[in-house]
Amino acid sequence: MHGRSTSAVPHDNNSLAELAYAYGLPQATGVMRLQAEDFQVVERLSFVPDNEGSHALLQIRKRHSNTEQVARFLARLAGVHSRDIGYAGLKDRHAETSQWFSVDLAGRQEPDWTQLDDESISLLTVTRHRRKLRRGALRENCFIITLRHLNADWRVLIERLQHIRQGGVPNYFGAQRFGHNNLAQAAALFAGRIQVRDRQRRGLYLSAVRAWLSNQVASERVKTGSWNTALPGDIMMLNGSKSIFPCEAADLQITARLQDGDIHPTGPLWGLGPLPTRELVAQQESEFLANAAAWRTGLEAAGLKQQRRALRVIPRALCWNFPAPNTLRLSFALPPGCYATSVLRELVRSD
């Protein structure tokens, strides 16, 4: 098995379309995000707010606005610097999302938060917290997604839904991670053609490269049928945690824990340091990314450290119904950093 060449910058969208499917290319077709309400997301925090402190903690429902736009608006309203605004994750503008933000009001008067209410933004909750809201401080994201104008064999569609509910899907990074040209910008950065002083923008470019490499390894494991099984030398991750441990042997206990969704095999998030995998898996990961030297070197030069990402994600509480003819409504929850679009791509080809 050999790595895919990255001598040319991969097209952001094509690189996603080429990823392997765990259950085969879906035959069902439909339309996603016909309106903002068709893609609803609610953040669940990983902590209980302190109800005191200098940081205002706001739950905001937004439509047709991305996270950074709302953060800038909050900074203007409160009269603070953008660095005083915190949020746990980025959310798509083409959706209806309930998202948490923190605003450091140390030494400042409480703003009139009612100014937030308009057609695209509405305030749901205000409380206080002692610390700034940090990226990833979520327990999960809960989704309600409506797919319309479905053309499907309903028996096959429901069978596939049952497979996904039981066995999950490959934990691919979704299109949001790549933006419109993040990979091209990263290639220019690594080649020295551009300089990027903005830390957030630079981070987006580096994250896109890391995600692309991660997707390639995950896709190769899907092709070999090992994305949801343990191989000699694998690094396993506890479900709902970042805790990892080496798999010495794929014995009955490991197999049972995999089937129960308690653990998952992992792939690399590239950075400095040796791969923690061993034997067959270390050899495979090196081969899968053999032609991606420029990408790997760029991430290492940027100082990123080797990390791991679960190869599989199992949607929690996956349910479905058919509220209207040729319409499917799904509800499920995913850990932070996982993408609903990676669930949907296994189910239906959508516009």
Which key terms come to mind for this protein?
351 residues, alpha+beta, Pseudouridine synthase, ten-stranded mixed sheet, 9 helices, 28% helix, globular
What does this entry show, briefly?
This protein is α+β, with helices and mostly antiparallel strands and 351 residues long. It folds into 2 domains: 12-29 and 170-313, Pseudouridine synthase; 47-135, 2-Layer Sandwich (Pseudouridine synthase), CATH 3.30.2350. It is 28% helix and 26% strand.
* Major sheet size, sense and barrel closure: 10 strands, mixed
Going by CATH, what is the homologous superfamily of the largest domain?
TruD, insertion domain
Overall average residue pLDDT: 92
Q: In CATH's first tier, which class of the largest domain applies?
A: Alpha Beta
Task: Report on the architecture of this protein.
The protein has nine helices and 16 strands. The chain is globular and about 60 Å long. The protein is 28% helix and 26% strand. It is an alpha+beta fold and 351 residues long. It has helices at residues 12-17, 67-78, 154-167, 182-190, 199-223, 252-260, 279-288, 293-301, 340-344, and strands at residues 29-32, 39-45, 55-63, 85-87, 96-104, 121-129, 138-151, 169-170, 235-238, 244-246, 263-269, 307-310, 312-313, 316-321, 328-334, 349-350. α4 packs across α5. The longest helix is centred in the middle third of the chain and has 25 residues, at 199-223. The strands form three sheets. Strands 1, 2, 3, 4, 5, 6, 7, 14, 15 and 16 form a ten-stranded mixed sheet that branches. Strands 10-9-11-12 form a four-stranded antiparallel sheet. It has two domains: 12-29 and 170-313, TruD, insertion domain (Pseudouridine synthase, 2-Layer Sandwich); 47-135, TruD, catalytic domain (Pseudouridine synthase, 2-Layer Sandwich).
